[in-house]
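Regression test attached.
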Amino acid sequence: MIPNYRRFPVCLVRGEGSWIWDAEGNRYLDFFPGWGCNLLGHCPPRVVDAVREQAGELIHVPNTWYMEAQGALAAALSERSFGGQCFFCNSGAEANEAAIKLARAYGRERGRFKIVTMEGGFHGRTFAALTATAQPQYHAGFEPMLPGFSYVPYDDLGAVAAALDDQTAAVLVEPVQGEGGINIPAPGYLAGLRRLCDQRGVLLIFDEVQTGMGRTGEWFAYQHEGAAPDILTCAKALAGGFAAGVMIARPPVAAALKPGMHASTFGGNPIACRAALATIETIEAESLLERGVQIGARFREAFEALRAERPGLVREIRILGVMIGLDLTFDATEVVAECIRRQLLVNVTHGHVVRLLPALTITDDQIDLGCAILAGVLERATS
Ligand SMILES: Cc1ncc(COP(=O)(O)O)c(C=O)c1O
C-alpha cells in the first residue's frame, strides 16, 4: 500500500447502525461513521436491500444509455433542492471538479473564469478542488496550483465583495465548514452571498458534500436561509455509504455543458442510484430530518454540562443537526487514540476540534454512553 493514509491498528469488519466490530470481535460505538458517509449508520437495511437487488439485475452500464434509477434520483434530488439538473459522479472532489468546470464553461462567453473560495475550506484532493481548498498545508508539495483562484476569510461578506471583479466566474463555499472545524457562519451570510453574486453577475456554488442529504436538519444546509445556489455539490452521505457524488445546477447554467465536455465512467451507476433512492426513502419514512435536530440538541446538552463542570476545557460548542464540533482549549490530537482504547470512534480536526458526524439513526442511549466516554477522556487529558 502507498503510505498516504495515517491508519489506526484496527481492522474493521462489520457494522450495524452506530456499532462497528473489529476483526478481534471488539465492538466500538461510532460517532464518526465513515467520515460522514454513513449518515444512516452502518448497513442501513433499505440501502442493503437495494444494493443486493440491483447487483443481481445490472451492476454497471455507461452513460451512453438511459438508466431508470438515475432519472428517478435526479428527479428526487431536484425536487428536494432548487429544481436543478443533475450530473452524477463518485465523490466530493469529482463533484467540485464538475462545478468548477461548469462555472468556467458558463463564464467563458462573458470573459469570467476566476473562482473565489474561503480560507479554512475543504473541497477535495484532485487538482482544481485542491486549489480551491484554501489551506496551505494541503497545497504543500504540489505547487504550482491552478491559476485563477483567490481566497478570502470565511463568514466575511465584505471580503467577498472586495474580491469579485468582472472576470469572476463563481464563489465556491461550504454552507458550514466541515473539515475546517464545524464553522457555522453568522445568520444572513449565505443570503448575503446570494445577493452579492446576483448584483455582480457571479455564480454561487455551495459545496454540500458534507452538509447535504439531511446532515444539518434540512435536506441541504442552504435551506436554513432559503438562499439557493446556482450550482450545488453533494457526495458523502448521498447513497447511504455507497460511493456517489452529484452536481446539481440551475438549468440555464447547466446548459453550458454540452455533450462531450464532461463525463464520469462510473458516475450515476445503477447500484449507486438505487442506494441513494433508498437513502432518501429511509430519511423520509423515519422522519430523520427532525430526528437530526433532536440528536444535535442532546449532544449540546451533554457538552454544556461538561463545560459547566470543567470550566476552561471547552472554548466553543458548534452544532447544526448532526454536524457537531467541540472546540477545545488544548491540543486534542491524542483524544482519538484514547477514545479508540475505550471503544469510541471520534475525529479531531485542526488539532483542537473534536468533530462528530453521528448517524441520524443513533439512539439516545448511544449518545449518552459515547458522551460519557468522551467526557472521561477529555477530563483525563487535562488532569
Ligand atoms: C466539504 C467537502 N467537500 C469535498 C470533499 C471531498 O470529498 P471526497 O473525499 O469524496 O472527494 C470533502 C471531504 O471531506 C468535504 O468535506
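Expected vs. actual: identical. Residues 288-309 form the longest helix (22 residues).
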